[in-house]
Structures
1.
Amino acid sequence: QVQVVESGGGLVQAGGSLRLSCAASGSGFSISAMGWYRQAPGKQRELVATITRGGTTNYADSVKGRFTISRDNPKNTVYLQMNSLKPEDTAVYYCHAGRTVVGGTVDYWGQGTQVTVSS
């Protein structure tokens, strides 16, 4: 079984920065894609950024140029550096880890970490 644990959320003023971390732990597995999603109150969960094992990244338009995703493959850890934060970035941020298996992918999610940006 794979366990996904996030850390690094908190309260920050607009224009500030935060760094989220997420580690996928377990044994006998290889994590392929990792990423961050977020869900604001009353809204659906949305993609923030993803990164493949080879380092290919994908960002939501709303965070391009402000957020940077990176990963440490040996540690199965992914990071999200968030700069120039805006109040509309306020949400619960969820880490996703995908494990490739025969016939598809198994998805694992963290419990979420709250990010609050005050104006």
2.
Amino acid sequence: QVQLKESGGGFVQAGGSLGLSCAFSGRTTNAIGWFRQAPGKEREFVATINRSGGTTHYADSVKGRFTISRDNTKVYLQMDDLKPEDTAVYYCAATDYTLSEYSRAYDYWGQGTQVTVSS
């Protein structure tokens, strides 16, 4: 089993920055990713990082603005130049597969943390 818990969400104005953390425990998995879900929309991929932290992959919508990183106990998502369309509940998730953009590839999920960006 893998346990995941997000923290760091909040309220920020457009153009601002926010950092999210995902504390993970349990057995080792191949990759951990961040997804988000806005009201009335499907859950969408944001970024993912492999076990060593040496390989990352981003959604086009956040490339150049968001940075994913990790250490031995947490995965981080630094979000800069935030836009109102970044408003969503952000989830971290773990997978035994290679880096994937597909939520169905991830077996373990956190509870989510709300990020709200005002215009």
3.
Amino acid sequence: QVHLVESGGGLVQPGGSLRLSCAASGRFFSINAMGWYRQAPGKQRELVAAITSGASTNYADSVKGRFTISRDNAKNTVYLQMNSLKPEDTAVYYCNADIETVVAEYEYWGQGTRVTVSS
């Protein structure tokens, strides 16, 4: 079985920073694209940032210039550095990864970590 475990969420004041981490564990061959999504109360889940196995990245317009996605392939981990946080960034953040297993490539989700931006 493959698991994605997120950490790093919490309460932060506007203008502050947080760093989210997501580590993949279990039996698999490789991790392809990884990404972060978020879902705010009453809203649909949306893509925040994604990174390919070759480290190409893309970001939602709302976070460009403030958030940075990166990955450490040796640790099977993806990070999301969030700076200049705004109240509208408040949401549950989910890690997502396309992982190649012995059977096939599957999409996996983490359990989510809550980020609250408030004074």
